[in-house]
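Researcher: Here's my situation. A collaborator sent me these components and asked whether they could plausibly form a single complex. I don't have experimental data yet, so a predicted model of the whole assembly would be a useful starting point for our discussion.
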Amino acid sequence: MRDTFVGVLTELAPRHPELLLLSGDLGFAVLNNFIAQYPRQFLNVGVAEQNMSGLAAGLALEGHCVFTYSIGSFPTLRCLEQIRNDICYHRVNVKIICIGGGMSYGPVGFSHHATEDLAILRSLPGMEVFSPGDLWEAGEVSRYLVSHHGPAYLRLDKSAAKPTVRPGEIFRPGFIRTVREGSDVTLAATGGILDEALLAADQLAGRGVRCRVLSVHTVKPLDTNTLAIIAAETQGIVSIEEHGVDGGLGGAIAESLMEAGISPGFFVRIGLRNTFSSVVGSQAYLRTVYSLDAASIVRTVSVKLGIAEEAISR
Amino acid sequence: MSQQTAIDSVALARRIRIHALRMTNRGGGAHIGAIFSCADILAVLYGGILRVDPEAPRHPDRDRFVLSKGHAGGGLYAVLAERGFFPVDKLLTHYQNGSELSGHVSHALRGVEVSTGALGHGLSIAAGVAFAGKLKQAGHRAFCLLSDGECDEGSTWEAVLFAAQHRLSNLVALVDYNRNQGIAPISEVLELEPFADKWTSFGWAVREVDGHDHAALRSVLQAVPFIEGKPSCLIARTTKGKGVSFMENSVLWHYRIPRGEEFDAALAELEG
């Protein structure tokens, strides 16, 4: 996803001279092509995320479209007050890019994981929050960010679902994509973990459970209308995110449905439960450890539907 | 855009203080000591240094002023009103329900570039404004007024490093160096000395001045950039609460509201 994002920026930079990419001293090799072609549109601001964010606000006040770029919680939590006060309160055109969404940087350790970002960023007034599920979505969101004015957050995952785009499909920011039809259970995923949701849907199909799989690439503003329809059409909703369950996608779905007076048959949030990722391992391994993988999703759905465990074990 | 001339900055500073006193008394809030500390700096800046036009507050060629010590917002509101950015009557709504004049400075007001209040934000924003000016080879400058207390903030020094690295000679940091912070003298909290040396060693061109001497302030501010290719830092040695004897150098008057006899006495001193 990171390379997709940088590719889009490299493509669009010449047509958008106001575009600036600020890096918190990260992106070795990855950004080389961009820097070589558009040195005047790139700035390594050093390991100083607070200054990067305030600086971005100042540049945006002067008409620039500014991308701030760093890993995990560095471009968000480290400088949250600058994002809140300088960027959001002034509604300036700054896009915050997090690479390493969720536990992408698995064995590097929890300090480089972003597992509270969706909850915290979506709480900021005026902030749009994106978490694409496959490379096509990542590219389309990146394009949208260049052309759209205002504060936004983009969480990029190292993992990505296999291509889900249909021929001729047009990307619509703010609208949930149904990437697989099904009438029994809804699996609503955000980020690269969409891949696990699709795998789980395959496995459940073998047991006669038809899953509808949603890619919620836009966490804010949340597509409440689509959710309301889906809640009525399937027996239950499972939210899936590589993120804490508190305040993330699951929280956002619960809030919006509750407020709309809609109760799905059942509702389960799959995500980290009041824990940091402290185990060492790859992103895929950590998903199994923290019960976020396809097998865990299958198990959760099976329990909710009352399908005997032996019926789904091989 | 031409520089403003023929403004009596000393009289302007007195009016800033009187407005601030009334606003604080009426509103029951604000940081009177911090406003009085920088009233002369604001008066000199808006009395001829800053290229600003009350008739065209968003003019692209204007100098940008960022009040990083947002708790002195009352002082900025007063000087902007005096310079005609909005009616002076509006000052009386300070701290009132439904007003645009929040205690910490708000860009809802005509002439205010940036809302601040959390310390250590302004210099980064001003550096961004200055960097953008360099990119488009524009002639405007960015001035940022900081408190000494906010030099405790690491983010301030991040911005200091950045500005020197990028040779932002169109950026001017003014530090209101009254040596008293929120609840104690600086010497008892985080000593900043050798203060000028710190800025110099970080790559800035530094001047020190009596922050209440208008002629000296004007003279040094007319000389920015102090060194071509470097950002400029003006350390203005000031007295917190300047202008009212019993408020001067008193930590008490960072937060205290002038009421009753104290208000009358302060007003008499300022008008006298």
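Model: Some features of this prediction you could bring to your collaborator: Chain B has a mean pLDDT of 95. The interface with chain A takes residues 107, 113-118, 120-121, 123-133, 135-136, 142, 154-155, 158-159, 161-162, 165 of chain B (CB under 8 Å).
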